[in-house]
Write a structure and sequence with these properties.
This protein is 42% helix and 24% strand. By secondary structure, the protein is of the alpha+beta class. The chain folds into five domains: 114 residues, Beta-Lactamase, CATH 3.30.450; 120 residues, 2-Layer Sandwich (Beta-Lactamase); 179 residues, 2-Layer Sandwich (Beta-Lactamase); 156 residues, Histidine kinase-like ATPase, C-terminal domain (Heat Shock Protein 90); 123 residues, Response regulator (Rossmann fold). A hairpin with a 7-residue loop joins strand 27 and strand 28. Helix 25 runs parallel beside helix 26. The radius of gyration is 49 Å and the shape is elongated. The C terminus is likely disordered.
């Protein structure tokens, strides 16, 4: 082999190494298309630094059109099915510019043959693509990276392409027409002009290299090829010269003149293990990094000695694949473990490419081994955590969830796994233990039972629970075990576990410490690292989320159950008063019913209607309170007055049950700043609750006493009591005790919720107490004593007196509910009034043309024309300006009252209207300022 051939081979070897490391874009993506590794060539071509692209989707390199059509996925699919995917298309750099690149994608498989990712190699081919897409002549003359010059036989320049402008510094306009010797000035190495022209006239092409001077005086080495063109008669017509700047090539040739040692020095600087082999696979050279990692010598590794650092389990497959590449001449790529100087194995991605001569024969093999152990472990951890999250998502109770956490850690992450939860008394309860040997699980429970950990110990489970900081012991020694043993048996049991390494992390749920997770290695001999600690912390976080989800699920299920119970109870409570009402109506329809029966039926219906109204009011009240829609009308009121109102309301129920009610108030005044109606409702609800949940002939106590700057109200009974487990939830909406077991009268489960919210609106607190089932209950309300001095409003209207019952007015009732309209009209007629009835807004307006009422009781929610519109039209009619308008509606909030007032109503009555409210409207007609 000549020196020049030797240099050419060395140059090709240098080129291959340089392209492998720098010029080629080489990166690895996982199965989801996320970038996992990134070489310098990729950074230069695509513009992304390694730290900002790792973990990002490789779709950012593709054009939006290719992403929409699924090109990245198709390429990965092709690589999996065919063993290699390829693409040749436009791509996008970080700065948004596009470039054309050709590349190939090769699947990376694990030891089991499963695809775990892909290796992608790309190279910029933008110039080639642009040249291909443009017109052939323009591409030939203007885009080609060479100067093209056409001259007449005498040297006059006829054509000067764009690259010639760049190369020589003369514009086309300046060069054309000049003699070529004026603008292309040889400095050295050129043959005589006579010899060149003689050859051209003889039809011979001439090429050569020489130093040329540019217009600005700088010089460069150039390669020139001159081709003669003749006409049909054989006369020389023109000479076309193609020249190029060969500075880079000359520099490369100069670099190639350096020894092979320089090439190897370059290979020694890369982070990969690198080596070269003969065509038959005999390795004759390794870089310095190989020897540093393996701890071997050149004598040990020469030839096929590399087998000594391979895992015997994977070596046969490696040999088979390597020998296959040697036979076929195809590149070799595979992932397998290599043993380091510390005798531990790490995974490496190995790539081997052939260096060929001009005839395509393999001259050398050049290989690199890239350490991917950390990447592989990160992928395994991510997969493990994803599988753990999926497994935990299917568990719906908290103890099963934590047992699942313990089981998931063995054997992937630990040989031992335990979950300890904190008890209310500060001790730890071992909830779960996992190990592949069931006998050893019993041993762990025995240790926890007989030798519980010291709560004051500076390390261990209690310390982690107390501080919230995880703990890791990379290597457990016997010297560590001896001081912590409480006796010989304890030490013997601990030693029998064979612990090697240990991690303990806090288990936090909704921001509160629940317990700790402990992981330990033994039989596997594994030593925990900071990466393992991070995995344990992540697993604990996911476990905490899973436990929180189970708690939410249980709470949702309980709420759903309470809702169902409430609806069933509501149906029952509504049907109870409806039955006697219906029966009474049937009685009244019967002929020859005596007056006493009619009176009893009427009283019965009145009682049941009041009961229905109370149920509806409670439902509306709890809805309004929960939504913050209730406004308190506070005034200074004596607590004795509130007690009197509440007792008056509940007395019929207490009497019906035969209960004995004791009321005790101090002799001193107990003024409070409160809404007397709402506070009476609080006391009444508590008394009602006591009456319902106390068996017949029971005792109920209502007391109050001053306590510092406040007052304490107590409602106590000797009834059925409350299960201690129910006490924390007794004030929740729809929560009720088990009526079947307690024989209580039940209710809607909203009374105590109303009590709690109304008390808190008065800046007070309420507490439920009970010694247990059958031992009675006590409700304690604490309220602040009023510091206000409110003088009574002597001008306050007190409403109509009993003897002020109005009579003889002209009235109109308007309601699309005919029963409601007719019943109210009947009541008003019996009181001595003249009453007309209309069942729609239109009918009411028509009626006012011939009938002028003193008062109109009008429903708001009528179809067609609602009450608001009817009121506005009545106000617009001549002669009806002083008619009193009273709205009838099921809505009674401040906003509802504002709307009726704006529509022209004088009064706002909530359905069903109380007789006293109707009398109050009519009483206003007698006032001096009445309309």
């Amino acid at each position: 082999m000549t020196d020049r051939q030797q240099q050419a081979q060395e140059g090709e070897l240098f080129r291959l190494l340089a392209e492998n490391v720098k010029d080629y874009t080489i990166f690895v993506i996982d199965f989801q298309g996320r970038v996992q590794s990134w070489n310098p060539g990729a950074e230069r071509l695509l513009g992304y630094r390694e730290k900002e692209i790792i973990g990002q989707s490789a779709e950012v390199f593709f054009t939006p059109e290719d992403v929409r059509s699924g090109v990245p996925q198709k390429e990965m699919k092709e690589a999996v099915e065919a063993g290699r995917g390829s693409d040749d298309r436009w791509h996008v750099r970080k700065d948004g510019s596009r470039f054309w690149a050709g590349g190939s994608m090769t699947p990376l498989r694990d030891d089991g043959g499963r695809v775990r990712g892909f290796a992608k190699i790309m190279r910029d081919r933008t110039e080639w693509k642009l040249a291909q897409e443009q017109d052939f002549q323009a591409r030939l003359l203007d885009v080609v990276g060479q100067a093209v010059i056409a001259t007449a036989p005498d040297g006059t320049i006829l054509y000067w392409n764009r690259f010639a402008e760049t190369l020589y510094g003369w514009s086309r306009a300046e060069a054309v027409g000049r003699n070529v010797t004026e603008v292309v000035v040889p400095q050295a190495g050129v043959a005589s002009a006579a010899d060149i022209m003689a050859g051209l006239r003889a039809g011979r092409e001439w090429s050569g290299e020489f130093l040329v001077q540019r217009r600005d005086g700088t010089t460069f080495p150039s390669h020139v090829t001159n081709t003669p063109f003749f006409d049909d008669r054989g006369t020389l017509q023109a000479i076309v010269g193609v020249s190029s700047d060969i500075t880079d090539r000359k520099r490369a040739e100069a670099a190639l003149e350096a020894s092979e040692e320089k090439l190897r020095l370059l290979a020694d600087t890369i982070p990969q293990l690198a080596w070269m082999a003969r065509p038959d696979g005999f390795i004759f050279w390794y870089n310095r990094r190989w020897y540093e990692y393996t701890g071997t010598t050149p004598e040990q590794m020469e030839g096929w000695g590399w087998q000594s650092v391979h895992d015997p389990a994977t070596l046969p497959d490696v040999l088979e694949r390597w020998k296959g590449s040697i036979a076929s001449g195809e590149p070799f790529e595979m992932v397998f473990p290599l043993k380091g100087a510390d005798n531990t194995f790490r995974s490496f991605l190995t790539r081997v490419n052939p260096l060929r001569d001009q005839e395509g024969r393999v001259l050398y093999w050049f290989g690199t081994n890239t350490d991917i152990e950390d990447q592989k472990r990160a992928e395994e951890r991510s997969r493990y955590l994803a599988e753990a999250s999926a497994a935990l998502a299917g568990v719906v109770d908290y103890e099963s969830t934590l047992q699942k956490v313990a089981n998931l850690a063995v054997p992937y992450f630990a040989d031992w796994s335990a979950v300890d939860v904190a008890n209310d008394d500060g001790t730890l309860r071992r909830l779960a233990v996992a190990h592949q040997d069931a006998g050893k699980i019993r041993l762990a429970h025995e240790l926890m039972r007989d030798y519980p950990p010291d709560p004051q110990a500076p390390g261990g489970a209690f310390a982690v629970l107390r501080t919230g900081k995880p703990e890791i012991v990379a290597e457990i020694t016997d010297d560590m075990l001896v001081p912590g043993a409480k006796d010989e048996r304890h030490l013997r049991l601990i030693r029998s576990l064979g612990l090697r390494s240990y991690i303990c992390v806090p288990l936090v749920v909704s921001g509160n410490p629940l317990g700790v997770l402990t992981f330990a290695t033994a039989e596997s001999g594994r030593t925990y690292t900071d990466a393992d600690l991070a995995l344990a912390v992540d697993l604990a976080h996911r476990a905490g989320v899973a436990v929180e989800n189970t708690q939410l699920y249980q709470a949702l299920r309980d709420a759903d159950r309470r809702k169902d119970e409430f609806l069933a109870t509501l149906a029952h409570e509504l049907r109870n008063p409806l039955a006697p009402i219906r029966n009474s109506l049937q009685i009244l329809k019967m002929p020859r019913v005596d007056a006493a029966t009619v009176e009893r039926s009427r009283e019965m219906m009145e009682r049941q209607v009041h009961h229905l109204v109370r149920l509806v009011d409670d439902l509306l009240d709890v809805s309004r309170v929960m939504r913050g829609k209730i406004e308190l009308r506070k005034e200074r009121v004596e607590l004795a007055t509130v007690f009197a109102r509440a007792v008056e309301t509940v007395q019929p129920l207490i009497d019906a049950q035969g209960h004995q009610l004791s009321v005790r108030l101090p002799s001193e005044s107990l003024p409070i700043d409160a809404d007397p109606v709402r506070l009476a409702q609080v006391v009444g609800n508590l008394l009602t609750n006591a009456a319902k949940y106390t068996e017949a002939n029971g005792r109920i106590w209502l007391t109050a006493e001053r306590s510092g700057d406040g007052v304490v109200l107590r409602v106590q009974d000797n009834g059925i009591g409350i299960d201690p487990a129910m006490l924390p939830r007794i004030f929740e909406l729809f929560v009720q005790v088990d009526h079947a077991s307690t024989k209580a009268q039940g209710g809607l489960g909203i009374g105590l919720t109303l009590v709690k919210n109304l008390v808190e609106m008065h800046n007070g607190t309420v507490e439920a107490r009970s010694a247990g089932l059958g031992k009675g209950s006590e409700f304690v309300v604490r309220l602040p004593i009023s510091a206000l001095r409110v003088e009574p409003d002597r001008n306050r209207e007190t409403g109509p007196q009993a003897d002020e019952s109005p009579s003889g007015f002209r009235l109109m009732v308007v309601d699309d509910n005919q029963d409601a309209a007719d019943s109210l009209a009947m009541l008003l007629k019996l009181q001595g009034h003249e009453v007309r009835v209309a069942y729609s807004g239109t009918a009411a307006l028509e009626m006012t043309k011939t009938y002028t009422p003193d008062v109109v009781f009008m429903d708001i929610g009528m179809p067609g024309m609602d009450g608001y519109e009817v009121a506005r039209r009545i106000r617009e009619q001549t002669g009806l300006g002083k008619v009193v308008l009273a709205a009838l509606t099921g809505w009674g909030q401040k906003e509802d009252r504002r709307r009726t007032a704006e529509a022209g109503f004088d009064h706002h009555l909530v359905k069903p209207p109380e007789p006293k409210a109707v009398d109050s409207v009519l009483a206003d007609l007698k006032r001096p300022d009445a309309r």
